[in-house]
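If your schedule permits, I should be very grateful for your opinion on a structural question. The matter concerns a single protein, recorded as an amino acid sequence and a row of backbone structure tokens. Could you please explain, in whatever detail you think fit, how the structure tokens follow from the sequence? I set the record out below, with my sincere thanks for your time.

——
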Amino acid sequence: MVQGAIMEYLSSAFGRMRLRFTLVSPGDPLSGIDSGLRAMLGLDEEYDRMHELLFSRARAGTVNRLTDAFDCRYLFFALPQDAANRVAVVGPYLAGSLSREWVLEKTEQLGLPLVFARQLTEFYASQPVIVDTSMLLALISTLGDTLWGGATSFETVDLNRAAVPLLSRDTAAMEENRILMEMKNIELRYRHENSMMDAVSKGLLQHVEWITEHVTGLSLEPRTADPLRNTKNYCIICNTLLRKAAEKGGVHPLHVDRVSSRYAEQIESKATPEDCVRLIGEMFRGYCRLVRSHATGQYSAPVQNALFYMEENLSGDLGLQKLAQVLNLSPGYLSGLFHREMGKTITQHVTDLRMNHALHLLTTTQLQVQHVAQLCGIPDANYFSKLFRKRFGTTPHRYRRHAPVQDR
């Protein structure tokens, strides 16, 4: 029971890194361990060789790092105290970013028709990039400590399979498999993109940051002969998809439009494909933060509109009567609805917004306190200072002197 729970935890942990975690018994087929790559290439005999390698090399206290003929990496190790003599396999993953030229050379090196380079490119683009495996090894080491009891020092063994031409294949069958592989790889890429968009719409910043660390040039499907224009086009597509994800996450369209317009300007200003790839990561993180800070999808339309109007008019009149007039609602209805959904009154929420904005202005500008007060919708500087002190236990002047310096 304990071992089963640990296996489930490891599977979930590796899954968040986009890593496949597979438990293999002596008689199990390995056709899915590489996302079906060898099967698609008609290399089923390679699974037998890999199976033999796993069970001949897996030893207690040893973690094997395998680099296969396709330059994919795997970690595998024998499960401690396992009656079924299973081997745990982590992977495949890549050790670094690959170029399209490298894929062409690899296709030739493996003795595959160059028409397969496109499918191999799609396959590599769908694999996670793990440059530093120390975290993976730490997870596995913890597994050993838990199941064996006491500290366990793992020996790490590197195994490499040379990239020699593979066995000859039926050309007609290979063409059929090539089409199937293309379909499978496109499905994987779309599934990954949908997963990313879903994470953005939910504001799952840590998940998004992990994934965007491994965005590579191979992830961008070439549609033009100009690499820079091609990458910019992909940026434009990402910006459009992320707009929809943020809107789905409950962000008001005006907030989304402002962020989208800013990124559109940045896209056209980029000078190299590498700059564009970095911008893609920034866009994913930026839209995710937008959802986390401005999502209002869980509230009714009147409350969403009220929240948006408050954020956009902090220095103006945000009294109940004014808000009700702007939103064409009765004051009593708006007040009751807002309190039920937000758990506080309109006055309390407006004060929260204004005080938080005051903190921002005090740490990012050198504006006089009386001007900060005005921008926060409180014309009376003395009343502003009194309100500020009641909220934060100090005066605006003292807060500014002791607050950490931020970019201005």
